[in-house]
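Late entry, evening session. Most of the bench is empty. Finally got around to the prediction I had been postponing all week. Sequence below, unchanged from the version circulated by S.P.
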Amino acid sequence: MEYLKKKIYILVAITLILQLFPYPAFAIDTLSPYPAYEGLQHGGDLYRGIHFTDIDNHWGKAHIQETAGLALMKGVGNQQFQPNQSLTRLEALTILVKAIGQEEEAQRLGEQQMPPRVRDIVILSTADHWGKGYLQVALQNNIVTPQEVNEIMNLTPQQMENLQQQVENRLEAYEGRELTAAEMTNLQNQIADQLETRNTWNRPVSRQQAAAWIARALGLEGTYGSGIVRVYTFNDVNQMDTEKLPLVEAVLQKGIMSGTSASTFAPKQTLTRGEMAAMLVKFHEDLLEERGLVKKQGEITAVEELQHEGANKRVLTVENDDNSKNLIVTEASLRDFPVQRHESLGLSNSLRRGDWVRYYLNENDEVIYASVDPGATTTIEGFVETIDVDNRQLVMTDFQNKRHILQVQPSAKIQINGRDVNFEGLMHGLEIVVTARNNHVSNIEGMLEEDPDRHGYIPPGSRTKVGDVLFINGDTIEIRANNNREKYRITNGTQILRNESPANLFEIKEGDRVILFFNDIYSPDIATIRVEDHERHIEGIYRGQIEQVDQRNREILLKNVTVYQNGRWVSHSRDQVRLKAEGNLLYEGAEKISLQNLSTRKNSEVYAAVENSYGVPRIAKLVLKGGSSVLYESKITDINFGTGRMIVDNTGLAFHAGTIVVKNNRLVDMLNLDENQIVYVAADLLRGNRNASFVAIEYTGMVEDRIDRTRLVIYRGTVEDIYHYGITMGRLGYRLDYLKLEENQWTEVSGRRRMTLTEDTFIFDSDLQMEIEAGYFMDTRYIDPEDIEDKELRRRVEDRFYLGKAAYFVVRETYTDGETYEEVLAINLTPVNIYEGGRLHIEHSAIGEIAEVDIDGETITLSNVRHWNSLNRRWESAVNSETILADKAVIVVNDAPIDKDEFHKLRRSAKAYVIKSKNSSTGDDAYIIVVEQ
């Protein structure tokens, strides 16, 4: 309320003062304790002059708008920029002279070199005169050297002859105008000067020449000796001029330029105007001081509309990232500035409260240009690492073990367990949820399980560890935290949580991000394991070429993208894919590289493991492709971590820290590679060496032994007897015992099997497509059949119809103290037999990932499908996705059966193991679907 009163008071006061004084900026400046900056005089004219109509579909649109808005580049006339037109030598030098703040000096020097006018005849334009001044300033500032000037001006004899002929031809037009000899000589010199400039300085600039001029304008020293690295990655390095090579290297290392491909720099190729704009954006801020400009950025926290003497004023309050605050005052048509928002150009009236704006001030304290940076509000969950009270900086570690250094705004709301606290009240290790924008915090919510007033007390669960699961079994978990391997103990009392709900231990997979909570500061025994739900699951492996790297927004644009699907690379549905690159797992071979280095690798091929974190595709890990592709799919027959080599398909392959290893949709450590695993490997062949860039480990563990000493077993038999909390399974027929699914094969087991039923056992009649309550099924002697609404089901229960009928049994086996306990989780009754002559037929297994669930049609579409080949005893990939009918199926999700009303719980990309039967009329009918998600 106090803030609202204060705001109203200021608004009223501003209005009153504007009525008393004719200069609104003075009035606001004297009223507010904060500086007030005006818009640029005639800023609307500048906006109209740079509103180009030919850049909408150009990849460098945003760069062009920014460089034009900052008056570093201009159009070619008629609202055209011509981004694909070659940049001339004179244009390049003109831009660089502007960038070093010498534009006014250049124009004055150009005026001083103007020849006398010849009556009303105009040969050289203002641009021609100023061009001479730009060349002179570029020479004075050593952007261009005298040697380069001589080389450019050195025309061949034939060129000189042609030029002289053109001069004579143009002079003929003035011979009948009674001009003096001196006037004719003057005109001859002007025409020769103009034609000479067209044939020299107005010719396209080469890439290596532009690189050298940029390096000198920035004051970069040439790189020599062992420091020369980048240029040697290009096959055409020998085509570079010797004196320019060190400067090209310096520009490459600074990330301003890149090659035209991974192996080509094309030093003598021309540069386009659009490409120059893109390079300017990367280095112009290094020269702001030379131009007398100041850059500021912050959040617009208030927007007021005022009116004075018929003029509309707009006052923007900006809280800057350096904790300063100022006002920006604009007036439509008179005091305004161009604003770029999402590659769209407008004026200051497009700015809104809450925008994070980057803006530039000239020496007159006028805002000349602004850009609304797209950094959306983000929520970061993690733990307090340290705080700097004096500078109001918060250092925290998130659940992905990524470190964040954040600026906490003075107005930020800070609470612990819903109670307001001061910034210094944030404790080390406190779990917090931070709301931030562009690394500036507006809200912090701390969560403490005990009363925060009890100082010095270490409550249960307050000691934590965050890391990625390296290995796990029923007794221990080993995580990688801060590049260290740490092992802790799992006890019978350890609680597992996923998405704040209890979960099974087997749901924790290698590669999962976990938070371990301890009750004792010195004990290795884990009290609680919280598993990150699905945010870091790998959505896909992309292979593509780098089109663009946006260092400011930490994004990579890939083109020609293919996606790994079940042993094949399939074209992506989009021509280009934009991915966030906020992590640091960017590799070239075994070495990490920065995003800045990556920006110089345009057209280089990469492999990228992509996660869909909170709806935004992000790069979890990326490695540059370093050679020709070779692909393998087989078993690992030998592996040596000491040498970093493995044998796959009788071929030796190297692996390293940059190798992307994926198992069960998780990014896992290379230590998770093991002998006898079936793997798919994409390797790079370079100089005879095969280096694995991507390894996919086949996962089929849904019906195998699990880390918590349990496993799911699927049986096929008959209901021989039913009793209180128990069932006996018998043989399928006279010549066929009951069957057990072992290593994906049906094997006969003689005799009978007695197992436990519970009230939670899910019992389903696939013929009626109806669930049977466990109580009705077990206790038919003690229930009133009239309680069963369905007549056919009532009849079957009364007649003990299911005795002797075939069924699938999904059983959870638990190994405890040397004994095996068998609990029936689900029974799918199939009273219409699907076997003949003593043997099963048309029945098979498949595994895949859930791609789509049709709740109304009761179908599930699987991608990355593999079928079990019982003859060869191996999984074989299917080419296409498959849709299976699930109306007759029992579905078990993480050991919990679900009914048809819970189909919505099935998640995309979840692993599914399916027992299905080929039906000629309906396609594939599933009877058992086991899902892990």
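Two things to note before I forget:
Residues 1-26, 450-458, 836-842 have pLDDT under 50 and may be disordered.
Residues 2-20 form the longest helix (19 residues).
Will write this up properly tomorrow.
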